[in-house]
């Protein structure tokens, strides 16, 4: 039996525990149409709390509705990558630095050197702004009653220029009543830095989701459901131990569950001995 727990970073687990309300709100935002509050949103919380997993789940909801979804990470060059994804083109060479040439004057100790400078090669798609590229994609999608979702992970203020360009373009798309949604995510301090930027005031109106730990009773219920539906059994005592050891931390739920499942090997029962091995292995394996 395959292990149903997936602690791999950035991967959406089979069951997104404790986020049912967030998922339902996003479903309503897409179904309610243009102008719904949830179509411009951000997700924040500490590392490992499930921000990326929630963005992935939002993408799945949009894809189920036949929307186009583009997922990006807010590192250097992300805006160019968005435009490339929207226009289905690849970025070509942007500039070439020409060499320096030295001219020796024969019979004299004098020499001259000069730089030939550089030639900027801006391909056609570089002239497309994000707003225009997104608008062209939406022209096609909206004829089929479909929309466009863009998610941006790891938002921070280190390259504020690209964020400003993206936010400005998105603001115009929303004002034009395009069938678009934008959700970004980041650590609390990083997101606050972005929202406090004088040019990015538009994003302060975004719907906020602050992720925190999952209540232990919900963890207990999720463990029971996942374990039993995948062919194994565990007593209430074992489930209590597994649940408590996670402290409600989403990543730890996956990690503890992963090792509890792995240590049962071919057995169909997760035992107290298994939970002890899992509890000792999880902090070690997670660093």
From TrEMBL:
Segments passing through the bilayer: none
Domain Orc1-like AAA ATPase: 16-182
A Pfam family: AAA_16
Keywords, comma-separated and alphabetical: ATP-binding, Nucleotide-binding
PANTHER family per record: ATPASE DOMAIN-CONTAINING PROTEIN (PTHR34301:SF8), DNA-BINDING PROTEIN-RELATED (PTHR34301)
Protein name per its UniProtKB record: ATP-binding protein
Top-level lineage group: Bacteria
Annotated GO MF terms: ATP binding
């Amino acid at each position: 039996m395959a292990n149903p727990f997936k602690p791999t970073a950035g991967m959406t687990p089979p069951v997104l525990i404790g986020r049912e309300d967030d998922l339902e709100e996003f479903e309503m935002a897409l179904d309610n149409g243009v102008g719904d509050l949830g179509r411009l949103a951000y997700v924040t919380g500490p590392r490992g709390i499930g921000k990326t997993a929630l963005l992935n789940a939002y993408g799945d909801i949009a894809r189920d509705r036949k929307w186009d979804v583009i997922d990006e990470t807010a590192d250097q060059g992300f805006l160019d990558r968005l435009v490339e994804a929207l226009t289905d083109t690849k970025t070509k060479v942007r500039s070439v630095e020409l060499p320096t040439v030295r001219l020796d004057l024969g019979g004299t100790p004098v020499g001259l050197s000069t730089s030939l400078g550089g030639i900027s090669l801006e391909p056609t798609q570089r002239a497309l702004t994000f707003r225009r590229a997104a608008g062209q994609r939406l022209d096609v999608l909206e004829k089929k009653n479909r929309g466009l979702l863009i998610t941006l992970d790891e938002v921070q203020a280190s390259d504020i220029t690209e964020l400003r360009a993206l936010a400005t373009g998105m603001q115009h798309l929303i004002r034009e009543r395009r069938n678009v949604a934008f959700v970004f995510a980041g650590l609390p301090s990083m997101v606050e830095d972005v929202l406090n930027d004088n040019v990015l005031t538009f994003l302060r109106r975004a719907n906020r989701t602050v992720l925190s730990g999952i209540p232990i009773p919900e963890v207990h219920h999720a463990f029971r459901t996942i374990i039993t539906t995948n062919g194994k059994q565990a007593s209430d005592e074992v489930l209590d131990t597994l649940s408590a050891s996670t402290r409600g931390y989403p990543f730890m739920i996956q990690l503890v569950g992963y090792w509890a499942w792995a240590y049962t090997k071919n057995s169909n029962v997760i035992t107290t001995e298994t939970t002890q091995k899992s509890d000792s292995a999880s902090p070690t394996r997670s660093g």
